[in-house]
Specification:
homodimer, 301 residues, alpha+beta, six-stranded mixed β-sheet, 9 helices, 12 strands
Chain lengths: 301, 301
């Protein structure tokens, strides 16, 4: 190990890869690090768990989003990880660090946002920790359960690729806000508070989905994770997308092809899955799974 | 709500109290916020969960502790919360935020510390999140299981109070380090890496403990939590303690009664419990539970 190497040189994914080498496994860890959530067996049953950090200035801005919106989004990002396993969330814990001069009402509105978003799937905040810090940091951990967890590694050549939810709306909203616009309202609101299709996760599991993940980093990046884990090639057919009106208008205003938001925009928490048989209602087919023929990955045709 | 109130005026416990008002409950939450861990029922079985945040400069200092020691302590604090419910931890998630110029090896040593401490009870790190931040922040969430969770609220007048593990060692070490000393070694090491009596938690549950918690904030403060939850008065008999050598020598060097460390020092993660019957091997009786007669609390006689 190079003792002088810095985190910024290694990068987030590089660090995670090196950390994983230390983790090891255990017979009670049914699914470990590297999927949307882990699955742990207990003496009776099992549970899913996933965790996310949000840092002010990196994951949210107080001048762009209200505390309630930040809370809703923090919860949504986590609840979506359980949906992406085909599961349903049942509990969350929240770690909250903030400067002492923050208005108390901000922390309470944040809590309300988390609690209300969790209530959409019947999950409850069951614990947490509070501490002082120079920067606002929110650590959310979500637990849940799934009858048949759907992993990233099960896609097979011949499967179709489909998605549920929205693609590109939050990305278009972020692009608009970044240029100083506060509209179109639908795109900006999609950035502030995503609307993940929570129920579509268990629905896809029940319908026999072979692989699934949520779109947090962008459709092609996240399909790339499925492709790598499944050792397949994924072809996305761009003529299959219905590009929503807010994306077209942000695209026009900023001189960007709205398809860019669909393929690369994150934070909508759409679900993408592969199916060997019928695709359930509400899912839109956008591509196919093929042999990797050497190199796995997701691309556009 | 006073819109101008700041977090520093409300304080950590004040914020937690206000936040709790929003949390609500659900039939699947067997134990909610306000104990060492929450307990959630699933379709098959149940799990325990607890979470802690550590911030550089507040919970650890890089010039006092190695990354490996910080990781061990972060894990210990969380694993202890599951032991304090009479349970055994099985999985952890870790959120890690740090500046880009931090040496990668620090993050990897931290991971090793967490992994090795977790291995002491058979628990595994199953997931996490990594992000950039100006300050190092570590968010650990631990899950576990218990056949019969022991809560804080079950102490009854006539019970005896007993503890397992160490009391005051970490506090004495912290006091020594704060004055610029690097010794006595045993106290300083106790501050850097606590040695919680993990097995004593399930042991106490099996022996019929009526209430239990871990000593993270100081014996009298944490017994106060049991007293409040149980609506009883707890009397601690100070002549029952065997004050260890490192405490005596720090006390002499700093001109402090070593009993102060025993009663008020945190971070050793001893377990304290109340028993209606026999006290198991390895536990030391230090007090009695009495009627609250108006006001619950823990005091010294």
């Amino acid at each position: 190990m190079d003792q002088t190497q810095r985190l910024r040189d290694l990068g987030e994914f590089g660090l995670i890869e090196q950390v994983r080498a230390y983790l090891g496994g255990a017979s009670h860890v049914l699914i470990g690090s590297g999927d949307d959530a882990a699955q742990i067996s207990t003496d009776a049953g099992s549970y899913l768990v996933s965790t996310d950090l949000l840092i002010e200035g990196r994951h949210f801005r107080r001048d762009w989003s209200s505390a309630y919106e930040v809370g809703s989004k923090a919860a949504a990002a986590n609840l979506s990880d359980i949906a992406a396993m085909g599961g349903t969330a049942n509990a969350l814990t929240v770690g909250f660090a903030a400067p002492g001069d923050l208005e108390s009402v901000w922390a309470l509105d944040l809590t309300r946002g988390i609690v209300d978003e969790a209530a959409k799937v019947g999950a409850v905040v069951v614990g947490g920790d509070v501490t002082a810090s120079d920067t606002i940091m929110i650590a959310v951990t979500v637990m849940g359960e799934a009858t048949r967890p759907v992993r990233r590694g099960g896609a097979t050549p011949g499967d179709v690729v489909a998605y549920a939810g929205r693609l590109g709306w939050a990305g278009a909203g972020f692009a608009a806000l970044s240029r100083g616009f506060r509209s179109p309202k639908k795109a900006v609101e999609a950035h502030r508070v995503p609307q993940p299709p929570y129920a579509a996760g268990p629905q896809a599991a029940l319908a026999g989905a072979t692989a699934m993940t949520d779109v947090s980093d962008g459709l092609l990046v996240d399909l790339g994770h499925i492709a790598a884990a499944s050792q397949v090639a994924i072809d996305v057919h761009t003529d299959r997308f219905i590009v929503g009106e807010p994306l077209t208008s942000v695209g026009q205003a900023l001189g960007v092809d709205p398809l860019h938001f669909v393929l690369s925009g994150g934070d909508d928490y759409a679900l993408v899955a592969t199916f060997g048989g019928d695709v359930p209602d509400g899912w839109t087919v956008i591509g196919t799974v093929a042999d990797a023929s050497g190199e796995s990955g997701a691309g556009v045709t």
